[in-house]
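Exam revision sheet. Question 4 asks you to relate a sequence to its structure. Input first:
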Amino acid sequence: MTTPTQRPTAQAVFERAFHPFRNSRSDAYKEGVLAALRYRLEGARIGCPYKIGTAEFDAFHAGLDEGHARAREALEVAG
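Answer key, structure tokens:
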């Protein structure tokens, strides 16, 4: 008999994604990843702290893309 896997936390998925051997990413990018994970896994709202047209704004939104993808993967694994 199989038991359901516990739903992952945003912080746990984030920590696995940014392991020590991964190439470095900007803080804005990582903030975007974590924001998307918190949205998908914990129901938190996403608020971008950067102004439109800045490199940080673009990095944050690129991070959102990765965060959404990682959340989908984590939820598939959790069943």
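Marking note for examiners. Residues 55-78 form the longest helix (24 residues).
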